[in-house]
């Protein structure tokens, strides 16, 4: 089973563009349902009644759970599936199917017979004139891939012109002309304009359909399309680059942040300051999680604020000046430039921060606005990290040098004290020596005195001393 895909309704893929335009409770005929990733959404989210036609029996078994009726048949064996259809449908879907058919015009025209009055046919097909294919051809390559523009099961190829022609052949008029887009380097071919001479690269980059990956058409019967604006085959159809990242906003419910309740705004990694604005549902309670991007990048946040749409009253503002007050928690975002407080770096695919809005009451329509610039240039990220590391090394070196100076000063003080101790020891030793000398002299004097007092002469003159004392 080759096409067992995951559906993300928040990203404007060809499947999401179709599903976003289907009314709840409709009857849908889905050709090429594969494993039922669209069928499931139609059933569970839009409460539609779906009939499917699928060639792969294993995939059909998975999708059958969500369909009212599953027909296992080769679409080009028309009688095998048409005989099993006896209803009219509000929507007929050919999502990435026509390119697998040798005669897509005949199959599409037959399917239109089952379209209800004012019903809608939706198709998506790859663009064979994508710049990546042209660049491959310029290099002499036309290599099939497991999936993508040159999927190895594609047998029919389309350009803008041929899509219009097949729709017209089937009696259909597009009322919406949509597309998905990818730069050559983000396709499965990973081509780069730098591989080609500048004039060639410039020519390719200026081509209107050069980045269009898939054409998506929303069509009515020609006679029923008169109330809709006429689509010009050469008309530009807006920018829907799938390789552009998204800033995503989540609203807390029961302590969790659910993908299906999130809001998205496209972002560009061009280092230009831009605003992302999100209307906050009035029912919102709890905190808000902001994922500014989903890849490694330099994130420079000027401010985040929430304000009432009616009077512009600011309910919350967070920026570098107030040290990003209001941000409760930061995950996988690192402040690497302490001089530029608003600059962060994301080194993972899931950077986010939690904004504390639990005490805010959104009684009227409020807007969350984040002004920031993004840069995912690997060299710039590397240089920023290197510069920060160099700065940290310099700071640490200065600290170490300062500590070394302090240690040197302390060592000098200690040496001085040790010298003073030695000097004091010498003084003490000298004093002790002097004391010893005095003690010896004292002992000698004491002996002389003792000898004198015990001498005969001292005894014989005692009377004379007494008489002498009386006359004093």
Automatic annotation (TrEMBL):
GO terms for biological process: methylation. CDD domains: AdoMet_MTases. Residues 400-455 form a coiled coil. The keyword Transferase applies. InterPro entries: SAM-dependent_MTases_sf (IPR029063). The keyword Coiled coil applies. Keywords: Coiled coil, Methyltransferase, Transferase. GO terms for molecular function: methyltransferase activity. PANTHER family: TRANS-ACONITATE 2-METHYLTRANSFERASE-RELATED. This is Methyltransferase domain-containing protein. It comes from Paenibacillus nicotianae.
């Amino acid at each position: 089973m080759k096409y067992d895909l995951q559906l993300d309704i928040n990203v404007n893929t060809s499947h999401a563009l179709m599903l976003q335009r289907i009314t709840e409770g409709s009857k849908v005929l889905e050709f090429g349902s594969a494993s039922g990733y669209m069928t499931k959404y139609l059933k569970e989210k839009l409460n539609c009644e779906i009939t499917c036609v699928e060639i792969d029996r294993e995939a059909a078994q998975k999708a059958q759970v969500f369909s009212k009726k599953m027909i296992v048949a080769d679409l080009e064996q028309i009688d095998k599936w048409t005989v099993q259809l006896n209803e009219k449908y509000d929507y007929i879907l050919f999502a990435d199917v026509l390119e697998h058919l040798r005669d897509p015009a005949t199959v599409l025209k037959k399917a239109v017979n089952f379209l209800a009055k004012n019903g809608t046919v939706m198709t998506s097909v790859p663009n064979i004139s994508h710049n990546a294919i042209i660049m491959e051809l310029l290099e002499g390559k036309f290599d099939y891939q497991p999936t993508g523009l040159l999927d190895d099961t594609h047998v029919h190829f389309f350009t803008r012109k041929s899509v219009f022609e097949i729709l017209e052949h089937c009696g259909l008029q597009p009322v919406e002309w949509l597309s998905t887009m990818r730069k050559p380097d983000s396709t499965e071919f990973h081509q780069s304009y730098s591989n080609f001479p500048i004039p060639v690269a410039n020519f390719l980059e200026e081509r209107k359909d050069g980045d269009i990956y898939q054409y998506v058409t929303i069509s009515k019967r020609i006679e029923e399309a008169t109330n809709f604006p006429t689509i010009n085959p050469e008309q530009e159809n807006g920018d829907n680059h799938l390789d552009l990242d998204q800033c995503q906003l989540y609203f807390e419910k029961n302590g969790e942040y659910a993908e299906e309740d999130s809001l998205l705004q496209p972002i560009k990694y061009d280092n230009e300051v831009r605003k992302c604005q999100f209307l906050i549902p009035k029912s919102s309670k709890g905190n808000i999680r902001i994922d500014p991007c989903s890849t490694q990048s330099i994130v420079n946040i000027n401010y985040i604020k929430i304000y009432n749409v009616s009077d512009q009253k600011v309910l919350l503002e967070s920026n570098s000046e107030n040290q990003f007050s209001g941000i409760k928690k930061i995950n996988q975002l690192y402040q690497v430039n302490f001089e530029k407080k608003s600059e962060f770096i994301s080194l993972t695919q899931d950077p986010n921060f939690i904004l504390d809005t639990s005490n805010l009451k959104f009684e009227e329509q409020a807007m969350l606005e984040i002004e920031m610039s993004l840069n995912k240039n690997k060299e710039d990220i590397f240089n920023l990290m290197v510069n920060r590391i160099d700065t940290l090394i310099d700071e640490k070196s200065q600290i170490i040098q300062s500590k070394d100076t302090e240690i040197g000063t302390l060592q000098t003080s200690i040496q001085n004290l040790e010298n003073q101790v030695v000097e004091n020891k010498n003084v003490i030793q000298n004093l002790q020596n002097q004391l010893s000398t005095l003690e010896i002299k004292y002992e000698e004097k004491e002996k002389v005195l003792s000898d004198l007092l015990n001498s005969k002469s001292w005894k014989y003159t005692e009377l004379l001393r007494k008489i002498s004392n009386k006359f004093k």
